[in-house]
Amino acid sequence: PPMVRIRSLIAEGDYDSAAEELVHVAAANPGDRIPWIERADLLDGKLSDSVGAVQTLEIGLKSYEWNEEDAAFFLFKIFEIHEKRHARKDAMATLDRIVEGFPSTRYSANAVHKKRELTGDGSKNLTAGPPGSPMVSPPVPGKDRISPPPPSKS
Asked: For residues 74 and 61, what is the distance between their CA atoms, to the nearest angstrom?
């Protein structure tokens, strides 16, 4: 099974190959969030590629029509990566995406709490960066769907 092979590659320290294999698993199982999350964790944790981890989660988010809890979960994972890298504006913008896009989820309540924790009160409008800066909105179910990236040729 693919996940057994991936676990073996990780145990051997072959993180690049494991990350590539996870792309195939995600493509073969579009409704399974685990390969996306594991690939992002691997990129961020073992390969020090937080940008690639965020990109993986954004692609995963748009690759399938997730239920609200799962979609908000992807965004919360993105927030955690931004928070870890001390990318405050990106972290706050991601929290706002969760609150605005998925208000009825438990992740929205967690995002509100995190905003209060990070700002002292959470009452400020934290979505906006400098005037004119882009803000990515949450995906619209059934729209903005994209395929996982093709595996790189080695």
From this structure: 6
